[in-house]
Amino acid sequence: MPIASFATLLLAAAAPAANPCAEKPEDCIIIADLKDPSYITVAASRTPVALTGTGISISQIRQPQIEGLSLPLVKDYLTLVPGVAVAQTGPMGAQTQVRIRGAEANHSISFIDGIEMNDPASSGEFRLDTLLSHGVDRIEVLRGPQSALWGSQAIGGVINIVTRAPLAGTLFHGELQGGSLGTVRGGIGGGWAGENLTISGQLSGLSSDGYDIARSGGDRDGYDNVTAHGRIEWRAAPELTLLMVGRHQDSTSRFDGFNFVTGVPRDEPLATRSRQTALRAEAALTLLDGTWTTRASFMAVRADNINRRAGSFQNRSDGERDLFRLQSTGLFDAAGASHSLTAALDVETERFSSRDANAQAASNQRQRRRQTSLVGEYRLTLDSGVSAGAAVRHDRNDRFADATTVRFDAVAPIGDFRLHAAFGTGIADPTFFDQFGFFPGSFRGNPNLVPERSRSFEAGIGWASGSTSLDVTLFDANLTNEIIGTFDNITFIAGVANATGRSTRRGVEVAGRAELAKGLGLTANYTYLDANQQQTAGTAMVREVRRPRHSGSIALNYSSRDFDLSAAAAITGARGDTDFARFVPVTLPAYTIVTLAGAWHLTPRIDLTARIENALDATQVDVFAYRGPGITVHGGIRFRL
Description:
mainly beta
């Protein structure tokens, strides 16, 4: 069939349906940081709770907002979330680190459809630079320690990703977009939901020629990514639900080296291929009229990172994580209140191996460790709307000291106001790199490390009236046993050790929204962060690097039956960093990234899309000597059936 005839048929077959943003504009606001009881969080508790029922600071970015800006990677949306700092080492696909409330980059846990995705084959961070936004229904960011629920690394918070699936009937969606730097991205997905069975999935890809990081007339440093994701949920019986989630991502990032004499990137034909495969299988049994639910699940993650130079193998690291989880939750009403009590057992096994092109290299190794955890959580909800929760977790480790963490939260509505508070402790276990070393052989791990420990408190007040709201939250956290880098000037051997001092992170977050006119929404947020580090007890505090003291975002969204328009400004204040050629502190200048996006509804089911990133062509430097791409322009088509 000719392309023109196919397009005509597609336009004619599109069923008339109003643009959801035009019908419900409050859903199209860029950041939904509000306490609408119709929305739940699946990461702030071991069981789903309403946003109004938790004292934890949470931001949700929903599917209409994701489509509104049409940004290619999930990390692009995180720049709009209060308290989140994103640092990217150059172009698309380059190493990207996310810090929540001043915590370290490996102090947060990322979930995709309930699977913990942090990379066991690297520094323990989830490589958010590999996470495409196509097929994502909701991005949820929890701020503050969540280790009592989810274990190690959840010191700064949790990033939870939920993929797109139909609630009823058939869903079919896709997009294709191209633009600057030879960038092409696309995806197709869909699903079907019946009375007892829901199937969904998506296939997405991105390719970009990129630009020369070294900016010295060398080769362009591009990026390629292909991701497949699927989910099946079957209600096999009224009491039994079975779930299966599978995911595979394969990406290649090309980059340049670094000249430690001149202190700038050096043109080199380097590339890293990252692959990650994940599986989740779960059975849920609900008894006693839905008041008692027991879940048994198994999750497996396999990851490998392969480094090459001009196509020749240099080194690789491989990691595996197997997690068995047994959880039981009971619900009951007593004394004018609703109660929820959860008990859980987590058994996690991690394996790690690294191999160098040199068979005799000291970094060649295979390691393994296991953690067994007991978790308990209690939640209380009064008829007045007052809610509170408490959680405790004990981790037994076979490689280092055991740990116990706790978390408490409470929320109390008073008219149009809402008081909320939370306290928590967190831990971050040493990574395999920290314990056993990695490439090159001039770095040696430290098997005597102990877990990092954190304690945090937050309190705030929110106000909401109709579609207008404002929330102010104060937070205070400290970190001890921080794992820091060491260097021997005689042997030139680098390593790590636990700091004897402490680090402090305190500040304030302000977030609000308003509907300025019919279909026109405004959101804004601001974060002040004072993050300092003390490596040796008794010495002066030093400002933490790559953490802006001032940051925020402003977003406007307009939706109508014929077209949608979105504008967002992500504001990053000045930050400190280190010039690794001279080992002296430097200051990275402040910048603002403005994104303009729009969609023209050819039919209620087909849109023409356009996007301008960094519309003001701001100089973006998140890591010293590594500059962002500048202004880029993209356009394409999107459909939903």
